[in-house]
Design a protein that fits this description.
This protein is mostly helical. 86% of the residues lie in helices and 0% in strands. 26% of the residues are buried.
Length: 237
Amino acid sequence: MEYSQLERMINEREAVIERSFPALMKKVYIWMTLALAITGMTSWLVANSPAILAAVFGNPILFWGMIFAEFGLVMWLSAGIRKMSLTTATLLFILYSVVNGVTMASIFIIYTMESIASTFFITAGTFGAMSIVGYKTSKDLSGMGRYLIMALIGLIIATIVNIFVGSTLMATIISYIGVLVFVGLTAYDTQKIKELFMNADEYNPDVQKYAVLGSLTLYLDFINLFLYLLRIFGRRD
Protein backbone atom coordinates (compact mmCIF):
# COMPACT_ATOMS: atom_id res chain seq x y z
CA MET A 1 0.00 0.00 0.00
CA GLU A 2 1.36 3.38 -0.96
CA TYR A 3 2.10 5.92 1.72
CA SER A 4 -0.43 8.37 0.28
CA GLN A 5 -3.20 5.76 0.45
CA LEU A 6 -2.31 4.88 4.04
CA GLU A 7 -2.27 8.54 4.99
CA ARG A 8 -5.65 9.07 3.35
CA MET A 9 -7.13 6.10 5.23
CA ILE A 10 -5.78 7.44 8.54
CA ASN A 11 -7.20 10.88 7.81
CA GLU A 12 -10.58 9.40 6.91
CA ARG A 13 -10.60 7.36 10.12
CA GLU A 14 -9.75 10.43 12.20
CA ALA A 15 -12.55 12.35 10.49
CA VAL A 16 -15.04 9.58 11.35
CA ILE A 17 -13.92 9.64 15.00
CA GLU A 18 -14.22 13.43 15.15
CA ARG A 19 -17.80 13.18 13.93
CA SER A 20 -18.78 10.08 15.91
CA PHE A 21 -17.54 11.02 19.38
CA PRO A 22 -19.69 14.16 19.91
CA ALA A 23 -22.69 12.40 18.34
CA LEU A 24 -22.38 9.41 20.70
CA MET A 25 -22.01 11.59 23.79
CA LYS A 26 -25.00 13.64 22.67
CA LYS A 27 -27.08 10.46 22.35
CA VAL A 28 -26.12 9.40 25.88
CA TYR A 29 -27.43 12.67 27.34
CA ILE A 30 -30.53 12.72 25.13
CA TRP A 31 -31.53 9.18 26.12
CA MET A 32 -30.81 9.94 29.77
CA THR A 33 -33.01 13.05 29.60
CA LEU A 34 -35.84 11.16 27.90
CA ALA A 35 -35.65 8.43 30.55
CA LEU A 36 -35.84 11.05 33.31
CA ALA A 37 -38.88 12.59 31.60
CA ILE A 38 -40.57 9.17 31.39
CA THR A 39 -39.86 8.51 35.07
CA GLY A 40 -41.11 11.93 36.16
CA MET A 41 -44.30 11.70 34.12
CA THR A 42 -45.00 8.15 35.33
CA SER A 43 -44.47 9.17 38.96
CA TRP A 44 -46.81 12.15 38.61
CA LEU A 45 -49.54 10.08 36.92
CA VAL A 46 -49.34 7.32 39.55
CA ALA A 47 -49.35 9.87 42.38
CA ASN A 48 -52.58 11.32 40.98
CA SER A 49 -54.30 7.94 40.71
CA PRO A 50 -55.58 6.75 44.12
CA ALA A 51 -56.37 3.32 42.69
CA ILE A 52 -52.83 2.70 41.42
CA LEU A 53 -51.31 4.16 44.60
CA ALA A 54 -53.39 1.80 46.71
CA ALA A 55 -52.52 -1.17 44.50
CA VAL A 56 -48.77 -0.51 44.56
CA PHE A 57 -48.12 0.87 48.04
CA GLY A 58 -50.92 -1.00 49.77
CA ASN A 59 -49.54 -4.34 48.65
CA PRO A 60 -46.03 -5.01 50.06
CA ILE A 61 -45.56 -8.04 47.79
CA LEU A 62 -46.25 -5.99 44.65
CA PHE A 63 -44.13 -3.06 45.83
CA TRP A 64 -41.08 -5.14 46.72
CA GLY A 65 -41.60 -7.20 43.59
CA MET A 66 -41.22 -4.01 41.55
CA ILE A 67 -38.09 -3.04 43.51
CA PHE A 68 -36.51 -6.41 42.75
CA ALA A 69 -37.69 -6.12 39.14
CA GLU A 70 -35.81 -2.81 38.84
CA PHE A 71 -32.66 -4.41 40.19
CA GLY A 72 -33.11 -7.36 37.83
CA LEU A 73 -33.59 -5.11 34.79
CA VAL A 74 -30.38 -3.19 35.54
CA MET A 75 -28.42 -6.42 36.01
CA TRP A 76 -29.91 -7.97 32.86
CA LEU A 77 -29.14 -4.91 30.77
CA SER A 78 -25.62 -4.52 32.16
CA ALA A 79 -24.64 -8.19 31.90
CA GLY A 80 -26.42 -9.04 28.65
CA ILE A 81 -25.79 -5.89 26.59
CA ARG A 82 -23.42 -7.71 24.20
CA LYS A 83 -25.95 -10.39 23.26
CA MET A 84 -29.14 -8.35 22.99
CA SER A 85 -30.18 -6.15 20.09
CA LEU A 86 -30.20 -2.36 20.23
CA THR A 87 -34.02 -2.43 20.17
CA THR A 88 -34.15 -4.82 23.14
CA ALA A 89 -31.64 -2.74 25.12
CA THR A 90 -33.62 0.44 24.45
CA LEU A 91 -36.96 -1.16 25.40
CA LEU A 92 -35.47 -2.51 28.64
CA PHE A 93 -34.20 0.97 29.48
CA ILE A 94 -37.65 2.45 28.84
CA LEU A 95 -39.30 -0.30 30.91
CA TYR A 96 -36.91 0.39 33.77
CA SER A 97 -37.72 4.11 33.57
CA VAL A 98 -41.45 3.36 33.85
CA VAL A 99 -41.11 0.89 36.73
CA ASN A 100 -38.81 3.29 38.57
CA GLY A 101 -41.38 6.04 38.03
CA VAL A 102 -44.07 3.93 39.67
CA THR A 103 -41.98 3.17 42.76
CA MET A 104 -40.92 6.82 43.05
CA ALA A 105 -44.50 8.12 43.01
CA SER A 106 -44.52 8.30 46.81
CA ILE A 107 -42.29 11.40 46.75
CA PHE A 108 -45.29 13.40 45.44
CA ILE A 109 -47.24 12.29 48.50
CA ILE A 110 -44.45 12.79 51.04
CA TYR A 111 -42.89 16.07 49.83
CA THR A 112 -44.30 19.38 48.63
CA MET A 113 -44.22 20.12 44.90
CA GLU A 114 -42.11 23.22 45.56
CA SER A 115 -39.38 21.27 47.35
CA ILE A 116 -39.43 18.54 44.68
CA ALA A 117 -39.02 21.14 41.94
CA SER A 118 -36.27 23.09 43.75
CA THR A 119 -34.38 19.90 44.58
CA PHE A 120 -34.65 18.77 40.97
CA PHE A 121 -33.01 21.99 39.78
CA ILE A 122 -30.31 21.70 42.46
CA THR A 123 -29.69 18.13 41.28
CA ALA A 124 -29.57 19.19 37.62
CA GLY A 125 -27.04 21.93 38.37
CA THR A 126 -24.85 19.68 40.51
CA PHE A 127 -25.05 16.80 38.04
CA GLY A 128 -24.26 19.08 35.10
CA ALA A 129 -21.25 20.63 36.85
CA MET A 130 -19.78 17.26 37.86
CA SER A 131 -20.43 15.75 34.44
CA ILE A 132 -18.50 18.64 32.87
CA VAL A 133 -15.67 17.99 35.34
CA GLY A 134 -15.57 14.33 34.32
CA TYR A 135 -15.70 15.24 30.64
CA LYS A 136 -13.08 17.97 30.73
CA THR A 137 -10.55 16.84 33.33
CA SER A 138 -7.30 15.27 32.18
CA LYS A 139 -6.85 13.56 35.55
CA ASP A 140 -7.51 9.82 35.63
CA LEU A 141 -10.50 9.26 37.93
CA SER A 142 -10.34 5.45 37.90
CA GLY A 143 -8.64 5.33 41.31
CA MET A 144 -11.32 7.53 42.83
CA GLY A 145 -13.95 5.37 41.13
CA ARG A 146 -12.81 2.24 42.94
CA TYR A 147 -13.21 3.94 46.33
CA LEU A 148 -16.60 5.34 45.32
CA ILE A 149 -17.87 1.91 44.32
CA MET A 150 -16.74 0.49 47.68
CA ALA A 151 -18.47 3.40 49.41
CA LEU A 152 -21.63 2.69 47.38
CA ILE A 153 -21.65 -0.93 48.55
CA GLY A 154 -21.28 0.26 52.14
CA LEU A 155 -24.08 2.76 51.57
CA ILE A 156 -26.43 0.04 50.33
CA ILE A 157 -25.64 -2.17 53.33
CA ALA A 158 -26.16 0.74 55.76
CA THR A 159 -29.49 1.59 54.11
CA ILE A 160 -30.73 -1.99 54.43
CA VAL A 161 -29.66 -2.12 58.09
CA ASN A 162 -31.42 1.18 58.80
CA ILE A 163 -34.67 -0.17 57.38
CA PHE A 164 -34.80 -2.41 60.44
CA VAL A 165 -33.13 0.00 62.90
CA GLY A 166 -35.15 3.07 61.89
CA SER A 167 -32.58 5.59 63.11
CA THR A 168 -33.25 9.19 62.01
CA LEU A 169 -29.62 10.15 62.67
CA MET A 170 -28.32 7.25 60.59
CA ALA A 171 -30.73 8.16 57.78
CA THR A 172 -29.40 11.73 57.77
CA ILE A 173 -25.78 10.55 57.71
CA ILE A 174 -26.58 8.11 54.90
CA SER A 175 -28.18 10.92 52.89
CA TYR A 176 -25.14 13.20 53.14
CA ILE A 177 -22.75 10.36 52.29
CA GLY A 178 -25.02 9.37 49.41
CA VAL A 179 -24.80 12.87 47.95
CA LEU A 180 -20.99 12.80 48.12
CA VAL A 181 -20.83 9.32 46.56
CA PHE A 182 -23.08 10.14 43.60
CA VAL A 183 -21.47 13.53 43.02
CA GLY A 184 -18.18 11.68 42.61
CA LEU A 185 -19.71 8.86 40.56
CA THR A 186 -21.19 11.38 38.12
CA ALA A 187 -17.72 12.68 37.25
CA TYR A 188 -16.20 9.18 37.22
CA ASP A 189 -18.92 7.63 35.04
CA THR A 190 -18.83 10.55 32.59
CA GLN A 191 -15.08 10.11 32.13
CA LYS A 192 -15.49 6.34 31.71
CA ILE A 193 -18.16 6.82 29.02
CA LYS A 194 -16.01 9.43 27.28
CA GLU A 195 -13.03 7.07 27.16
CA LEU A 196 -15.23 4.28 25.79
CA PHE A 197 -16.36 6.45 22.87
CA MET A 198 -13.08 8.24 22.10
CA ASN A 199 -12.20 5.87 19.24
CA ALA A 200 -15.65 4.43 18.58
CA ASP A 201 -17.65 4.33 15.37
CA GLU A 202 -21.09 5.90 15.69
CA TYR A 203 -22.58 3.41 13.23
CA ASN A 204 -21.35 0.29 15.03
CA PRO A 205 -24.43 -1.42 16.58
CA ASP A 206 -22.42 -2.55 19.61
CA VAL A 207 -21.32 1.02 20.27
CA GLN A 208 -24.93 2.17 20.03
CA LYS A 209 -25.88 -0.38 22.70
CA TYR A 210 -23.11 0.89 24.95
CA ALA A 211 -24.50 4.38 24.48
CA VAL A 212 -27.78 3.09 25.94
CA LEU A 213 -25.87 1.51 28.84
CA GLY A 214 -23.98 4.77 29.38
CA SER A 215 -27.22 6.73 29.51
CA LEU A 216 -28.60 4.24 32.05
CA THR A 217 -25.49 4.73 34.20
CA LEU A 218 -25.85 8.52 34.23
CA TYR A 219 -29.61 8.21 34.72
CA LEU A 220 -28.99 6.16 37.88
CA ASP A 221 -26.45 8.72 39.11
CA PHE A 222 -28.96 11.53 38.59
CA ILE A 223 -31.90 9.72 40.21
CA ASN A 224 -29.92 8.66 43.28
CA LEU A 225 -28.38 12.11 43.70
CA PHE A 226 -31.88 13.64 43.46
CA LEU A 227 -33.34 11.27 46.06
CA TYR A 228 -30.54 11.85 48.57
CA LEU A 229 -30.78 15.62 48.12
CA LEU A 230 -34.54 15.43 48.49
CA ARG A 231 -34.15 13.68 51.84
CA ILE A 232 -31.95 16.57 52.97
CA PHE A 233 -33.77 19.58 51.46
CA GLY A 234 -37.27 18.26 50.88
CA ARG A 235 -40.16 19.76 52.86
CA ARG A 236 -42.85 17.30 53.83
CA ASP A 237 -46.55 17.82 53.22
